[in-house]
Design brief:
globular; two-stranded antiparallel sheet; mainly alpha; Neurolysin, domain 3; 673 residues
């Protein structure tokens, strides 16, 4: 397959900014080549350490030269004198590290892990004096535009939070903490991934798979066969803890004993043996607390919220408590109704945690006359993508097309698309990695940056869109659950914010420099469109008879959106409260978990004593949501207050309304709200 030079649309002008490595070195080590899209198929774990070592050396040398230049008292400082060189110098490192970081999430293996961990530490030890250079710019005279001011302000805050104002023993200790946290968060993620992979439950008796949908039996038989021939009707069948397997299994398995075993395995992931995250959690919390105090804050939540819309922990708690007060009674009533329904339909005794998904699904079937598996045949991935692209064309006047030429990808299932504006001009691109691969790919769904927009560097946005949905089975395409379709819309909202940005500076374009508790607004904006009648007609088509989702069934789907809404709200609030309390309290994490569970759990359904969910809470201990998980709920009232949400309620949109919607989207991207 051709390398990046075959890409049909250049991401650069003729002027390219690469590392100082000679072209010959780039041929030997593809990680050094930032002249186009990453050469994913050629990059190996052994390229990481020497490649990043070379780039770091170049960056440090360039920083020293810039520091000397900026120290000239006669130099007239301006944005182009300070920020443009910083963008040029930092680009090779940002480019190559984003490749390594991405591969570590989607193509994980032991050699890459080791290289990633080693270079992550080296990266953190590298020159962090960028904030000092922005300080010089702040002291100089001259006007800055809105995004420039935002970059300057946020860079100075980030510099302060990176310890740039510290010296002596405090500086040394602070740097040690940064390195320790880097290792601990990586260890946390690896333990969760390995613990998830380690569990499986093989079934051979057809009685044990009674009630399971055919699509799940296909997946479980494929899991057991390990790329060999399999028979979904005869088995064997393997249950795993990755989402496309465990979610439908818990909803449809009639074997209560098996449900209990799988549930207990899930809530105790990474909580024992060599993969135990219990100590890792306490170490992370202790170091974050110490780090915060060195910076002059009372706790880590104050540090985290300093750069967010909420600003202070008390504002987050106000939101959480307000929503809890309005939701808990509803959740209690929902559970009582579920207990009554289960009892009336043959369940004996008290409902346990492993019964909730099963009986909730039965109750929803009873109330709305459908279940997730009834919808799945209507959502083949190719049809969903066509409908999603049609919607974005309608909303924003863009075109999305498969790339005309080959690019290098990290897995054969990955696809690459180009985004064109209304005049047919290429403005962005994205990779789509849709299917679950539990052996090498972390769970969940996310969007991250492959390349950002920079008018100075002449680069265009390129995104990674990663999901973990049900893969194709034999002669069937990937048939998605409604939740998987919703997740794709959600991540595509993040991707659109990245790709449709109008901000010319890399440090503020797309998702860069947006407050963490604001980033969920575009994703939820796109989610809402899935429940528009016209959208559903575009994204649904039965894979056998090509019928769209019947309108009467879609009406049931829309009504079912509120099913057990109070219970779902309380679950999210419990996660948000747990996150905040873990980052403000000094009590042991298990004590904090139990205290929050007592307050937010349903009276009739306390969590199991052995529940160790925090040991797999990757959002806050292995991702970017520490003291920020509330962001999902923070975005909802903000979305409700925006005019975009008002537009979403209309089935027909005038050209004026469309222009207004696009203008508001650009306004969000410009971050001038």
């Amino acid at each position: 397959m051709d390398t990046c030079s075959s890409w049909p649309y250049s991401i650069y002008s003729s002027r390219q900014y690469c590392s100082a490595a000679e072209h010959g070195d780039r041929n030997k080590n593809p990680l050094l080549d930032n002249s186009g899209l990453p050469r994913f198929e050629e990059i190996r774990a052994e390229h990481v350490v020497p490649g990043l070592k070379s780039i770091l050396s170049d960056v440090e040398n360039e920083f020293e030269k810039l520091e000397t230049k900026l120290s000239d008292p006669d130099l007239q400082l301006s944005w182009s004198v300070v920020s443009d060189p910083l963008e040029r110098i930092g680009f090779p490192l940002e480019y190559s590290w984003s490749v390594v970081n991405h591969l570590n999430g989607v193509k994980n293996h032991e050699e890459l892990r080791n290289a990633y961990q080693r270079e992550y530490s080296n990266l953190l030890e590298a020159d962090s004096s960028e904030g000092n250079k922005y300080k010089k710019l702040k002291k100089s005279e001259g006007s800055l535009d809105g995004p420039q001011n935002r970059i300057l302000t946020s860079s100075l805050l980030a510099a302060r939070h990176s310890g740039v104002d510290l010296d002596g023993a405090q500086q040394e200790r602070f740097n040690q903490i940064i390195l320790q946290l880097a290792k601990l968060t990586t260890d946390f993620n690896n333990n969760v991934l390995d613990a998830t992979k380690a569990f499986h439950l093989d079934l051979t008796d057809p009685v044990d798979v009674e009630g399971l949908p055919d699509s799940l039996k296909q997946l479980m038989a494929a899991n057991a066969a390990k790329d060999q021939m399999f028979d979904a009707k005869k088995g064997p069948w393997r249950v795993t803890l990755d989402g496309p397997c465990i979610d439908p299994f818990m909803k449809h398995s009639r074997n209560r004993t098996l449900r209990e075993a799988v549930y207990r395995a899930y809530i105790t992931r990474a909580s024992n043996g060599s993969l135990d995250n219990s100590g890792v959690i306490e170490d992370i919390r202790m170091l974050r607390s110490e780090q915060s105090k060195i910076l002059g804050y009372s706790n880590y939540a104050e540090v985290s919220l300093k750069s967010k819309m909420a600003e202070k922990p008390e504002n987050v708690w106000k939101l959480i408590h307000s929503l809890k007060d309005r939701s808990k009674n509803a959740a209690e009533q929902e559970h009582k109704q579920l207990e009554d329904f289960a009892s009336a339909n043959g369940h004996e005794g008290t409902l346990q945690q492993w019964d909730l998904a099963f009986w909730s699904e039965r109750q929803r079937e009873h109330l709305f006359s459908f279940n997730d598996e009834d919808l799945r045949p209507y959502f083949p991935l190719p049809v969903v993508l066509d409908g999603l692209f049609n919607l974005t064309s309608f909303l924003f006047g863009i075109q999305i097309k498969p790339s005309e030429k080959d690019v290098q990808v990290w897995c054969d299932d990955v696809r690459f698309f180009d985004v064109l504006n209304g005049n047919g001009r290429h403005i962005a691109s994205f990779f789509l990695d849709p299917y679950t691969r539990p052996a090498e790919k972390r769970g969940g769904a996310w969007m991250d940056q492959c390349l950002g927009r920079s008018d100075f560097l002449k680069t265009k946005p390129v995104a990674h869109l990663v999901c973990n949905q049900t893969p194709p089975q034999k002669d069937k395409p990937s048939l998605m659950t409604l939740r998987e379709v919703e997740t794709l819309f959600h991540e595509f909202g993040h991707g659109l914010q990245h790709m449709l940005t109008t901000v010319p500076y890399a440090s503020a374009a797309g998702i860069a420099n947006v407050e963490w508790d604001a980033v969920e607004l575009p994703s939820q904006f796109m989610e809402n469109w899935l429940y528009d009648d016209n959208t559903m007609k575009k994204v649904s088509q039965h894979h056998h008879n090509r019928d769209t989702l019947p309108s009467d069934l879609f009406e049931k789907v829309k009504r079912a959106r509120k099913f057990r809404a109070g219970s779902f709200m309380m679950r999210q609030l419990q996660f948000s409260a747990l996150d905040m309390e873990l980052h403000t309290s000094s009590d042991h994490w298990l004590e904090v978990k139990n205290r929050i569970a007592d307050e937010y759990s349903l009276t009739a359904l306390p969590p199991l004593k052995e529940d160790r969910f925090p040991c797999s809470f990757m959002h806050i201990f292995g991702g970017g949501y520490a003291a920020g998980y509330y962001s999902y709920k923070w975005a909802e009232p903000n979305l409700a207050r925006t005019r975009q949400c008002h537009i979403c309620t209309h089935r027909e949109m005038s050209s004026l309304a469309l222009q207004k919607s696009y203008a508001e989207w650009e306004e969000l991207n410009d971050m001038r709200e």
